[in-house]
Protein 1
Amino acid sequence: MKKVVFLSVSLIALLTSCAVKKSNPEDYKVNEESVINTLKFLTSDELEGRDSGSEGLEKAALYLEDVFAKNSIKPYFATYRDTLSNFPKPAYNIVGYLEGNDAKLKNEVVVIGAHYDHVGIGMAVAGDSIYNGADDNASGTTAVTELVNYYAKEKTNKRSILFCFFSAEEKGLLGSKHLSAKLKQANMDVYLMLNYEMIGVPMPAGKDMVAFMTGYGKSNLANKINEYTGKTFIGYYDFAIKYQLFRASDNYPFYSEFNIPAHTFSTTDMESFHYYHQPGDEFDEMDTAHMTDFIQQMIPVTEKLINADTREIVLKD
């Protein structure tokens, strides 16, 4: 005679929940203290403005390497350091790689990046000669470190991710020019490039957007993100067109080399934030609650972009 075992509905639900890991990116919480700690270190006077080839930028490089190491993110090259071939002083992109978990889609790569250099020490203003570069671009660098923290913990990415901290952006996008050419020569299949720059302060009240994106009309990325979020998360910003910001950050070399959607996200209205390339661009001017919230909102967006079954982000004619 067979023994019949009856399980309660609640017990079945409990066993099912234990057997299947449910991963909801909206449940993950970005830690503002972590945002503060990274931003405060990168903007400290000890780093002397993070000029490329300087001791200050070397300290920043060591910090970012440690972010990868603590999260068990592997180096893409022999080490995390990608030595620039187009800059006279020793300078390095810091590059980590997280393989995708889908047998087919892992061959496609999404690049997530930000430049971690700034302009160093310059003409003193009110006795301050250290250009700490909090918004430009310790803020964007911090955003990428938080995405590293998320993906290292959740490992939900179907496509592979190349996390890049670029050097010598302030010298003419030299770090991203070097790396994008190197990856193109290696025939890497780069699907999408997402770059973060100047997210330290929110858009002014009255702006119908959370952030703007350079190259707004060059792909369907902004429309797709707004569809994902159910609101005008990414808006059109005249300033970005007027000053050709699409060509002014590390997204552009990837667009040029690979002919793919490659864009920079920013929340700083440069017409109202007056510390661009000034000593006043310091930690105390940054809104870390805003930064935390922006990164938090970008996580489910990034999840959808990285895990879509098809290449739904495409360039426009």
Protein 2
Amino acid sequence: MAKSSAERVADYRARKKAEGMASLTVVVPAADVELFNQFAAQRREKLREGKHPAEAPRQQWLSMLAAMTPPLPSPVAPRRKRNALGAPITRAQTLFVSLLKHIAELGWPEGLPLGSEQDLMKIHGASRAALRGAIRLLEHHAIVKKQRGTGGGLTVAHPDLSATMQAVSVYLEYAGIAARDILATRRALELAVLDLVIERLDREGEQLLRNQVQAEAQLDGRAGADELLRFHFLLAELCGDPALRLFDSVVLQLADDHSTFHRRSRPERDRVVARIKEYHREIACAVIARDRAHARGQMAEYIAGIRTWLE
């Protein structure tokens, strides 16, 4: 009696298992299918030749990462590259950019091991000094983190938005940003955020706005900056544009840093907070109703009113 398809597949898997193989389903980006096929073909060829690789599974994985890593420019170049400001680009910076692009191309898999210092030096053909310089840059931006102990090394991390905001704020303070600059930039960004929120808002977003307005109901002059700005950070998140969210968040933080609100008397703060809650409620209702003109009008009025509270 002829065997069914399921039985033939089971027999095939049993034979392969006896040969030291296992059945595995892998989901990879379409662009990487050829690379994985080549890698698997090379491994099968070695097995057929009786050449069982001596390297440990971890080293096999690092070998595959090395194959997937784009080649770096030669450390000895005829002309030294410079950045947009004209400063020379170091080997560490070149390696930093290469590693960052590599992580992004892999889909930013948080927790993925990238290898030890020795592994990475071999993979990228880099000196210890250049690699450590690149690692310091990666850690500064919270792109990677170090795992200590046996089997440790670098792993992909989750970038810290607050650290990025702080770094940009420090530079803008150094550049001498003024209150009028903060207000003008905040107005442009928050109106752009509103347009995108109205365009992309879904039922879940509507409920988040209602919840936020309700949570603010009990606030008074004792409220902290985080409580008063939470509505605006929520709008920035709901807009769905990562760049706009970052820039808007930076300007919101700068506006708070330059505010004199917490130095005013309690009665003054109570009056201001009551007015802020009214604006937030009006803006939220207009956004949920998709009334773009009213939402923008209320936001513009709100930001204009901040002028007297900035240094």
